[in-house]
Write a sequence for this structure.
């Protein structure tokens, strides 16, 4: 029976991971009260005490704009803690799964980014997440780093839920239309994580399958098109919203100033994970439809 330590148990991905891994072993799911990722000694103590075979780390400082003025804490949680978890995994012979971000890129590439493209983060969040990737690689532990983008889910705060609220409250929305990426469902990430680990285990942990992979929904969109699709789907379940006039205006990035610079293009190429593990996530519209349906039909799970 394997012991699985999952961080960020109340986060979007952490919440889905707990459900997906519930029958895979003894799951120890933690939050900051159990193991504060800003405290390296606390991480070492906790991990040594639990002695897991597998550490899955979806916890992160994810407040992209707040991180600009809170860089020490963001670096502690996203950079240093990832390295400490990796060192402890190496010490125990455990496997570490870690999640990273499209925001490690500057967004200037006109095509999808591959794993061999050189990161050039533009924000504190992106820099700290890239530092975490580097620390994990330097540790020598068996690991998967899964870079994803624009995560949403039934559980937790995200763009989908914000749009649903704003669509009910307002008659007009102004949404950025010149940043491109792939909205990715937290549940797809959790299920793909389990598939990749099963495949790696079957082939043998010594097989050279570890490393960095891009993992996002198929397709690409911009925030404006994404918002329109969210509202279109929601109107099927929400009669008040269906009857309400709502204008969603496309705007440029400079018309919505925020502290952190975002990449213009952060579409990631998923060929490597497809070739290594046979993993292809659904088109972003298909998973979004499933998630919106669940938000309306099973609101108690949110
Ligand atoms: N969200 C996105 O759009 C996005 C895009 C690309 C990549 N990613 C990456 O994907 C992963 C999962 O993201 P997500 O959307 O599931 O994140 P999320 O919903 O924001 O959850 C992050 C979790 O980290 C926990 N956490 C924060 N500081 C902590 C600390 N000091 N000690 C322990 N736990 C702490 C939070 O706990 P509290 O809630 O209690 O603070 C929360 O449960 C992250 O690595 C993120 O960088 C996310």
């Amino acid at each position: 029976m394997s012991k699985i330590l999952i961080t960020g148990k109340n986060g979007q991905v952490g919440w889905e991971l707990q459900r997906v891994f519930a029958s895979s072993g003894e799951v120890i799911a933690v939050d900051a009260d159990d193991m504060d990722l800003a405290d390296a000694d606390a991480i070492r103590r906790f991990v040594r005490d639990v002695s897991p075979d597998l550490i899955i780390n979806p916890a992160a400082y994810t407040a992209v704009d707040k991180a600009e003025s809170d860089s020490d804490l963001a670096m502690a949680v996203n950079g240093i803690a990832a390295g400490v978890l990796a060192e402890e995994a190496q010490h125990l012979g455990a496997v570490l799964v870690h999640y990273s971000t499209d925001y490690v890129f500057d967004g200037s590439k006109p095509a999808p980014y591959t794993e061999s493209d050189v990161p050039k983060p533009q924000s504190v969040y992106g820099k700290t997440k890239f530092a975490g990737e580097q620390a994990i690689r330097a540790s020598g532990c068996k690991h998967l780093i899964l870079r994803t983008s624009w995560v949403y889910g039934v559980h937790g705060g995200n763009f989908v839920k914000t749009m649903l609220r704003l669509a009910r409250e307002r008659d007009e929305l102004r949404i950025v239309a010149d940043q491109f990426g792939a909205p990715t469902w937290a549940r797809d990430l959790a299920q793909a994580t389990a598939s990749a680990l099963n495949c790696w285990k079957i082939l043998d942990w010594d097989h050279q399958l570890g490393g960095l992979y891009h993992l996002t929904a198929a397709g690409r969109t911009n925030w404006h098109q994404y918002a329109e699709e969210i509202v279109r789907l929601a109107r099927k379940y929400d009669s008040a919203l269906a009857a309400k006039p709502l204008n969603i205006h496309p705007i440029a990035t400079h018309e919505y100033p925020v502290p952190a610079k975002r990449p213009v293009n952060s579409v990631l190429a998923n060929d490597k994970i497809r070739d290594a593990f046979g993993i292809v996530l659904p088109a972003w519209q298909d998973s979004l439809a499933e998630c919106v349906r669940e938000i309306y039909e099973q609101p108690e799970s949110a």
About this structure: The two ends are 30 Å apart (CA to CA).
